[in-house]
Amino acid sequence: MLLDEPLANLDVHLKASLLDEFQHFRARTGATMLYITTTRCEAMALADRIAVMTHGRVEQLAAPQTLYRSPATPFVADFIGIGGLVQAILPAPAAGGQSPDRDRRHRATRPRGRGSGRPVPALVCLRPEDLTLAGRGAAGRCRRARYQGGEWLVELTIDGQDDCELQMLAKPGAVPEPGAAVRLRITEWLGDSGGTLNAGTSGNQS
What we know:
By secondary structure, the chain is α+β, with helices and mostly antiparallel strands.
């Protein structure tokens, strides 16, 4: 079954209703559906696998969770979900040749041909749930905060990376004022050990 932008120009409530109907139809019939859309929320809600394309080229083909947590390219990282890309230095591969970004679930993209035996620059994808305020860590500044019902989405910049913009989730009472200096800590992406995001050549420390 081929669907090409079936929900374009519909209001939010009708879109939600039809998305439910598509899911029920697929579960009831077992039919294969090819769903073409420029709206990532529709794709993430319906698909088992998503092909992210730009300029006629497939950037990544994977399950929605994989695209969100392990984007293969900067375009996919930026297109799938809210987040930001930070310049980083990844440690050299550990003994046995395994790279830290794979072993410890770093969501990072290494430059091709630069993975041999020494630290390399990389782009790290940080989602809002990956960051929290801390007493030490990367120096940044709050640009603005938007209330989203139960929590705030805080937009941040990192000192030394003027073109980098990150988002962080904050509970009421813990929302920095616009223009306020902040310190950030990576929480989710290194598992229980946590990590510190350093400005400039931001390192990943456990």
